[in-house]
Amino acid sequence: MSVRYRAFADRRTAGRRLARLIGRPEWPDPVVLGLARGGVPVAAEVARELGAPLDVAVSRKIGAPGHPEFGVGAVTADAPPYYDLGTMRKLGLSPADLERTCEAERAEARRRLRRYHGGRAPVATHGRDVLLVDDGLATGVTAISALRALRRAEPRRLVFATPVCAVRAPERLRDEADDVFCLIEPERFGAVGRWYEDFSQTTDEEVVSLLDVSATTARGTPGVPDPRAGGEDAMTGRDQ
Hints:
- Helix content is 31%, strand content 19%.
- It has helices spanning 11-22, 39-50, 85-91, 99-117, 141-151, 204-217; strands at residues 30-35, 54-57, 60-64, 67-75, 82-83, 129-133, 157-164, 179-184.
- A five-stranded parallel β-sheet has the order 2-1-6-7-8, with helices on both faces. Strands 3-4-5 form a three-stranded antiparallel β-sheet.
- Strand 4 (67-75) and strand 5 form a beta hairpin.
- The longest helix has 19 residues, at 99-117.
């Protein structure tokens, strides 16, 4: 597919279109998590359409030595790090070479979660339909790391959704998610921001604001299971 225009006005518009793709009927007890930070405005629109609680997932890229923007892995606040072993071999790297970087990024993930939750408990995910949403999918390292962390909480179903993907990028997530939704998969992907007219940086304040709004309007309450779910186990799920 050749696309000569920016497909989405902004993240909120992309989220509304993504919500229509995902659809309402398939999700009896959904939880929507935005991959911080840019995924949260997209996820907020999906959560609104599904009538679901909104929460945040934080996955931090682990950059190659001397090239921090070139992600060779990613890590969340609590789960083991994920490394792209093929890329690591090509660069002659081992996980031990990146241990210091990994721990620094883990500490930052924890700091951000504390900032975003502001003392609120994470939304329960155990036994529920969990949709992880980002504003785009390029290499997939942060998405895979977040999905693996979410899988540890034993959701009923784990899905990844995004407005735009690099060619064949969704295939990298097939072993991590039960389903992958992507609106467009352009041949000349370039970068995620290329497909948005407004791709300004999402701020921490915006993330917190969106979570605050969801906490007072969504069907579920962060940290408290939906009454229909039943059982004490519903209270044990964590996003990471």
